[in-house]
Design brief:
Pfam family, one: AlaDh_PNT_N
GO molecular function: NADP binding; proton-translocating NAD(P)+ transhydrogenase activity
Organism: uncultured Poseidoniia archaeon
Catalytic activity: NAD(+) + NADPH + H(+)(in) = NADH + NADP(+) + H(+)(out)
Strand order of the largest sheet: 3-2-1-4-5-6-18-19
CATH topology of the largest domain: Rossmann fold
Low-confidence stretches: none
Number of strands: 19
Order of helices and strands: EHEHEHEEHEHEEEHEHEHEHEEEHEEHEE
Helix content: 25-40%
Radius of gyration: 22 Å
Number of helices: 11
EC number: 7.1.1.1
Largest sheet: 8 strands, mixed
CATH class of the largest domain: Alpha Beta
Distance between the termini: 31 Å
Structural class: alpha/beta
């Protein structure tokens, strides 16, 4: 069976499969075809792939393979009958693309739908591997824009106090951001709507910002639940009060399949001191800061620098591609045997956990969105979008 790896669209520097994964895929009976130049923006040359055993080819030839691996979803014009597509489809936000797959008789595996609570799925979890890097890079971006040093410095000219950093949210990205800021020498405060996050925040060097009346707003899949408007305001007011004296603020709050919640309203930004940097990690899905401009970095009238850089993992394309490739290789190796694709109805990574399971999450299936143009019955619970 042939596996095609594509060059990603403009703005995406990562590649789905790196040379080190090629031999692992070949051992599963797959023949790897790479579109010419697909890895160049991630610093993986065609010669690296050729040395690993991949075939360098045109886009048309790569698209003709039985299995296609990419990061971004393909345009509908490139979908073809019988294609098996492995990518990040983001089905909740892009139902029209899912409908195109159904119409084109495509079998679609959306890697962002990995049931992350299953231990077996953790090595396939592209959300975690990429969020981890994003949290790291967000702090580095904040440090590069803030007009002051980060660690405490004792010099003959005087003592420099450590910078104060606030991380809003402590999922995978948030915890890495806390740890990175701490390693840079900052004093780090962090918040989360999940009460269970306090211990995790403190374990990586942060100080937990507790909101009075906080409950544990975590769903069965490990993501934060949507909050009531009243509690959102209470959280925002509490955290923004701490943030008003900070030097760097990193926002990480992301609700699966929904627009990013506003955690920094415009009214709060107006109270921040000049030189404060806000790094909004969710600019691509609306932004956590009300004043974020997706894809832009700009300074407000009161001197606050708002960083709306999208696709932070893509700014670390070499490392991000390596981790993404490992996730995909582990996944595809689990459903390919001797060069044949095997879709088992008992595979809870593909279909989600059965309802009687401790891991069952209502409304969430597995990564298999549609098979041969037919949507799987669990996936009809995607909020009625299909």
């Amino acid at each position: 069976m042939r596996l095609g790896v594509l060059t990603e669209p403009v703005g995406e520097n990562r590649v789905a499969i790196v040379p080190n994964s090629v031999k692992k895929l070949m051992k599963k009976g797959l023949e790897v075809f790479l579109e010419k130049g697909a890895g160049e923006k991630s610093n993986y040359s065609d010669s690296d792939y050729s040395a690993a055993g991949a075939n360098i080819c045109s886009r048309e030839e790569a698209l003709s393979c039985e299995i296609i691996m990419s990061i971004r979803m393909l345009d509908s014009s490139e979908l073809r009958d019988g294609m098996n597509l492995v990518c990040v489809a983001d089905p909740f936000r892009h139902p029209e693309k899912i409908k195109s797959c159904i119409d084109s008789n495509v079998t679609l595996f959306s890697m962002d739908m990995i049931p992350r609570r299953l231990s077996r799925a953790q090595s396939m979890d592209v959300n975690s591997s990429q969020d981890n890097l994003a949290g790291y890079k967000a702090v580095l971006l904040g440090a590069s824009y803030v007009p002051r040093g980060i660690p405490m410095m004792t010099t003959s000219a005087g003592t420099v106090k450590p910078a104060k950093v606030v991380i809003m949210g402590s999922g995978v990205a948030g915890l890495q951001a806390i740890a990175t800021a701490k390693r840079l020498g900052a004093i780090v405060y962090a918040s989360d709507v999940r009460k269970s996050a306090a211990e995790q925040i403190e374990s990586v060097g942060g100080r937990f910002i507790e909101v009075e009346g906080m409950d544990d707003f975590e769903d069965d899949s490990g993501y934060a639940k949507p909050l009531t408007p009243e509690f959102i305001k209470k959280v925002n007011d509490t955290v923004c009060e701490v943030a008003s004296e900070s030097d760097i603020i990193v926002t990480t709050a992301r609700i699966f399949g929904r627009p990013a919640p506003i955690t920094i309203p415009a009214s709060a930004v107006s109270t921040f001191k000049s030189g404060t940097v806000i790094v909004d990690m969710n600019a691509d899905v609306g932004g956590n800061c009300e004043l974020t401009k997706p894809g832009e970095v700009y300074t407000t009238d009161n001197g606050v620098i708002i960083v709306g850089t999208s696709n932070l993992p893509g700014t670390l394309a070499n490392t991000a591609s390596m981790l993404f490739s490992n996730n995909l290789t582990t996944f595809i190796s689990s459903i390919v045997s001797e060069g044949e694709l095997i879709i088992s109805d008992d595979d809870d990574i593909l279909f989600g956990s059965p309802e009687e399971s401790d891991f069952y999450v209502p409304g969430m299936g597995g990564v298999l969105i549609c098979k041969g143009g037919k949507i799987h019955d669990k996936q009809t619970r995607l909020g009625g979008v299909l």
